[in-house]
Amino acid sequence: MARKYLLTATMPDGYVKTIGPTATAFTHYWRIVAELENGKTEVFWGHTKSLAEANGKKAATGDAARQRGWTSYRFEVVELERTPA
Description:
Layout: E1 5-10, E2 16-22, E3 28-35, E4 41-48, H1 51-68, E5 72-79, E6 81-84
Antiparallel strand pairs: 1-2, 1-6, 3-4, 3-5
């Protein structure tokens, strides 16, 4: 049986996201905070197995912003902290 971990991401604004328990070797957490034309906010997030994979999500964010009509957005990536579950 694979050893399981809790993964914790702490964002620059102080938001903390805990993932798990999981045995998958995720290393980074990404988040998009999108401002909509009507003044509302949407948040999209995910976790990846490498920084390169997370940065690949960033590359696609510009296209998503144009398609969905976001007035602005923030893309953030942080390294996940692992602790035994």
